[in-house]
Amino acid sequence: xxxxxxVILLYCVATVVAIVTQRIRVPYTAALLLVGVALGxxxxxxxxxxxxxxxxxxxxPGLLFEAAYHLEVRELRENSWTIGTLAVPxxxxxxxxxALLLVGxxxxxxxxxxxxxxxxxxxxxxxATDPVAVTALFREVAAPRRLxxxxxxxxxxxxxxxxxxxxxxxxYFAGEAPTAMALVVGFVRIAGGGAIVxxxxxxxxSHVRTRLNDAAIEITLTTIAAYGAFVLAEQIHCSGVLATVxxxxxxxxxxxxxxxTAGTREAVNSFWEWLxxxxxxxxxxxxxxxxxxxxxxxxxRLVLLGAFAVLGARALVVGVVGVLLRGTTERIPRAWSVxxxxxxxxxxxxxxxxxxxxxxxxxxxxxxxLTAGTVMLxxxxxxxxMSALLRRLGxxxxxxxxxxxxx
Length: 407
Prior knowledge:
This protein is about 80% helix and about 0% strand. The protein is mainly alpha-helical and about 400 residues long.
């Protein structure tokens, strides 16, 4: 089957899964992942491989922009300390704690010894709560608006910061950034440069839009902002992820409050809603096809250890942040902390980063196996149980409409 036929089949399968999951109330993303695993195992059709180039050039910019486009600047400002702490020092702590728990756990259970280089690189690969998985999940469940903002905003930002930290870790182990100061300067340049590029692109696009009132042109301009910011930032070796997120926030803010008429706004929103569905469907099916159930069987002890280390590190970071913010206006309720921990899903980005590691990066084969197993357990176990957890914690009422819930 040629490439066009494979794409058509991909979306036929995604449509069937979407219809079925609406009837049986199973999370759409988890169902897509399992169907993708089945398709990959049966080899019925040769699906495209989910490479870093494909994820970065096609999927991530569109998905990141769509999620950021709907964030309110006011809500980001009101929760800036929580989001910023989780997304920057929280990512550093997650990497370190994951590595510590993995090395210590391997020694404790008497299994294969895991070195610090391997553990830290695995921590860098798996640190981000994947925005593709998290935003897809929170679109499916009704949850308090502020909790939705915290989870979605953090996932968008720590996605970019974790890639930056992984890049710096690899440079450090390769001897290219030998000092702590060099790592700090590198982070500020890559992350800050990406944010500046995104703001500039968003500002230019927004000012062009003030002179227009044409839905087709508006959609084209937002598409240029999403993918153009990413490409431009990557070309100057800055964070394309943070550039696209920043551009999305700027374009969404100006479009909602300053430039677009109601009709044009509805057309733009409808386009990005459809594109998000299309990209999410494809990325989860392709991610499933890349995973293999044999990974869990062959390395199940280390996979469980890796998943425990990731979840344990996440719990410690969220717990410390909750304590630090207890006496502030950004206090995190205890039930929300549970959701922030359990909702810290790992997904396509982590697996692609693992597959894209250079051959001499620690124990690459072990890192890929740990990442694949952790991603599968995260998306299927945590993702499939999130709706039930929210109901158990009393954060949603049965029958709530996710699109209308704003309390």
